[in-house]
User: Fold these one by one.
Assistant:
Number 1:
Amino acid sequence: MKKGSLFVVSAPAGCGKDTILNELFKRTDKAGYAVSATTRAPREGEVNGVHYHFLSRAEFERKIAEKEVLEYTEYCGNYYGTLQKSVNDLLERGKDAILKIEVEGAMNIKRQFPEACLVFILPPSWEVLEKRLRDRGTETEDKIIERTNQARREVKFAESYDYLIVNDEFSAAVDDLLAVLRAESLRRVRNDELLARFE
Ligand code: 5GP
């Protein structure tokens, strides 16, 4: 069985990455979400083992010490990390493993796995992103400014990514991501066994 590939998807808050990924997993069974671990509290509707493995700080630190974490970061006062097991379980079943992680984690994964494919999701413009954050109606003006500034810092990393997808029209963005997965699966380096048939 062909092993799956490693993908990282990053995007600033408000760019629609969760919605895009949820739809992607409905449209393909060739890719799966590598569930991260975090010490932040579950939000309403989040299920342990599905959205995250919710751990205490002590549990998280034990996993780091036992080298069960491929990369981790502290983001807004909480640990977030990619579990080796989450990734391996998918790759060994022949599925592409999708890591939904922030930019520092993405750079860390690329250093360890240069063949990993990094995808950055952009908003159509800064104006649209700010409008989307405002329209949520859940954030104070200070929080909106903080999130926009954070987004500007994150977008600086986009130049180190392999693919850029603009989430202008949601369904087209999902198509774009599916196209990336498909193109990557056709790479010669991932298909040496195919050429071996023609030796
Ligand atoms: P949230 O708390 O909104 O679920 O996630 C906050 C940020 O942490 C998001 O940018 C998310 O992509 C990132 N994140 C989630 N899991 C991981 C992980 O395992 N490693 C890293 N480096 N970042 C993560």
Note: Residues 6-196 form a domain with the Rossmann fold fold (CATH 3.40.50.300).
Number 2:
Amino acid sequence: MNVFVPGGAGYIGSHTCVELIQAGHQVIIADDLSNSSADVPQRIKTITGTAPIFYQVDVCNKEKVREIFKAHHIDAVIHFAGYKAVGESCRIPAKYYRNNIDSALTVLEVMEEFGCKKFVFSSSATVYGPMNPVPYNEEMPAQVATNPYGWTKLMIEQILRDYAAAHPDFSAILLRYFNPIGAHSSGLLGDDPNGIPNNLMPYVARVAAGILPQLTVYGGDYDTPDGTCLRDYLHVVDLAKGHLKAIDYAMNHTGAEAINLGTGNGVSVLELIHAFQNATGVKVPYVIGARRDGDLAKCWANAEKAKKLLGWSADMTIEEMCRDTWNFTQKVSQK
Ligand code: UFG
């Protein structure tokens, strides 16, 4: 199949492109490189032996997206393009709404022009909001977000539901990711945020590498077994494989379907730090600090629907996630 991947040079997108190519698909990436590296297409080629077709394009630009659809017969789209930093989205909300919604709508409109009917969307567990109890399942109401980034995910899910309702031969698979961490085992692809990381795993890795002095654990007084927050961490390669299953599923599916991609297990911040130390033999100095605004104590998936519909489960261990993150961080910091 020819799969169009807006945002395919990013963290999850690049790992997904590797899995798509290894499964025999032709991959066409569009990425403006605003939060990714120009080396990524070459790195995908080094891993797979096949270069993805790459366009340095902002997919909010409809004419450019049309040119791509004219040049290639696109069978399915996996849409990753979007800004993703929760804190930043609170500071510059208009930019988040404009970019995330515009890019999704532009791709959707061009798909319609060219008769492409399979859309896999990069959604997030953030759509479950603060009111639902864990573990989250797809039947729960997902109507309230706590920040503009989360609202863009909810709004795009709604756009795709409405679109699928109006076009009975259209399939939208709304993949709700939990906390992807880890890196490709080659060390060539991984999460390499600009500046000081917001997310736990890249922060831990930079402390371990001596780039940052210590980690602050945000809150040690939550109602959890060790007082720190629980999250559903999954290996990014497992997550990427979930996308492969999702496009296969979309081929014989119509309508809009939300599917969690998580392990179904909650792991605390302290457990993750200790797992990292055990897997790598490197110490991670930390202090317990104040809670971070907006953090939920507990967030993990009910992962049954993905198993049932897609035949997918996340199987890699926390130790593998830590080992692969560390391997990647060492390679990046040697550059
Ligand atoms: N944490 C720390 N110290 C840090 C960074 C994080 O203690 O320096 C803690 C957080 O408080 C939280 C846990 O580590 O308890 C995980 O935090 P992340 O920032 O890595 O991830 P979040 O669960 O906050 O957010 C992630 C994604 C969002 C998504 C959200 C909900 O980054 O895109 O899950 O699905 F919206």
Note: The chain has a mean pLDDT of 97.
